[in-house]
Design a protein that fits this description.
By secondary structure, the chain is an alpha/beta fold. Helix content is 48%, strand content 16%. The chain is elongated and about 65 Å long. The relative contact order is 0.13.
Length: 347
């Protein structure tokens, strides 16, 4: 062989070595990149767990603690797919505090938010911001003055309060009381909120429809304070001997009014229906101090709110508005299995 042939053979050998080295280097780089890449599902979706923030109106209320319990039950049933973080202001009057909590939650970039907003307006900018960032927001109990939310779950408060008025009129009939010309009053927890307005107006509209000659006293507000509700009820009872009915629009109001009726001994003459439940209200119902409770289903709303948030995160269709029925609970039906479950959802 000629020297020229050997020279070409040497060049070819060197090229093979160089190309093999480059291929090995590229494969090593790809392997390293694969090892450092974040794990993803086959569809490129988040593998979880989903971080869901649940913000209630007040942490001092058994009602809202029950809603949180429902949300935590959804977390438990998910077997690690969901992590629920509850929060909320101490009282329903702490509107600015709830807005601050919501804004802080959004800054942590949760996968979803479930909120029972105290105000129909104050939380709107933050809710709209969250939605614009792709965070599903499930609203509960109080409807916001915006359509930029994912889903809304609530009782028809006006209809539920009207049912309380109907039950009150039936009680008067059983007692042999003619309500014409007599007086009733609504004692409300907070002025200006959509939920409380719908409850008091729903009660007043229906009671006037059923008893056109009844006298409805001016609605009184107790700042969601049991002691204030007690004082208002006592003063109203003392000033109006012809008072025959009181409507209390949440559990704190119900407890305050029940105390007033018990202390004055007027529970035999004055029929009171109150919204929601807690242990004090249930005891007052058993003892005949309160004639009835308008019972919602906060456990279900907390559970379903979290599950709707998960559906939205995963791109599934969720209903825009969901009505959750309320139930009139009395001493006569409170031991029925289905009613008992509403009163004691954690048993």
């Amino acid at each position: 062989m000629s020297k020229k042939f050997f020279a070409w053979l040497l060049v070819l050998s060197l090229l093979v070595v160089v190309l093999a080295g480059c291929g090995s280097s590229n494969n090593a780089s790809k392997d390293a990149a694969s090892e450092n890449a974040a794990p993803t599902s086959n569809e490129g979706e988040k593998t979880g767990p989903y971080k869901i923030s649940v913000i209630v109106k007040a942490t001092d209320s058994d009602y809202w603690q029950t809603l949180i319990a429902g949300a935590k039950a959804a977390e438990k049933d998910s077997n690690g797919k969901i992590v629920v973080t509850p929060d909320g202001p101490p009282s329903e009057t702490d509107i600015d505090k709830q807005v601050s909590i919501l804004e802080n939650v959004i800054s942590t970039k949760p996968d979803g938010i479930v909120i029972a907003s105290t105000s129909s307006d104050a939380t709107v900018p933050a809710v709209e911001k969250a939605v614009s960032q792709g965070i599903p927001v499930i609203t509960i109990d109080n409807q916001l003055n915006t359509d930029k939310y994912t889903s809304f779950l609530a009782t028809d408060h006006r209809k539920a309060a009207a049912a309380a008025a109907e039950a009150m009129v039936e009680d008067w009939k059983k007692m042999g009381v003619d309500p014409s010309g007599k007086k009733v009053i609504a004692i409300s927890s907070v002025a200006g909120t959509k939920v409380n307005t719908e409850r008091t107006e729903g009660f007043i509209e229906k009671i006037k429809e059923l008893v056109p000659d009844i006298v409805v006293l001016e609605t009184q507000y107790a700042d969601n304070d049991i002691s204030k509700a007690l004082s208002i009820a006592e003063n109203t009872i003392a000033a109006n001997p012809d008072l025959i009915g009181i409507f209390a629009d949440n559990n704190h109001m119900g407890v305050g009014v029940a105390k007033a009726l018990e202390e004055t001994g007027k529970y035999k003459d004055i029929v009171c229906y109150a919204f929601d439940t807690n242990e004090d209200e249930i005891t007052a119902l058993k003892n005949g101090i309160l004639r009835g409770l308008v019972v919602q289903n906060p456990f279900k709303m907390g559970y379903d709110g979290v599950m709707y948030a998960v559906d939205a995160i995963e791109g599934k269709e969720v209903p825009k508005n969901v009505i959750v029925d309320a139930t009139i609970v009395t001493k006569e039906n409170m031991d029925d299995p289905e009613i008992h479950k509403l009163l004691y959802p954690l048993e």
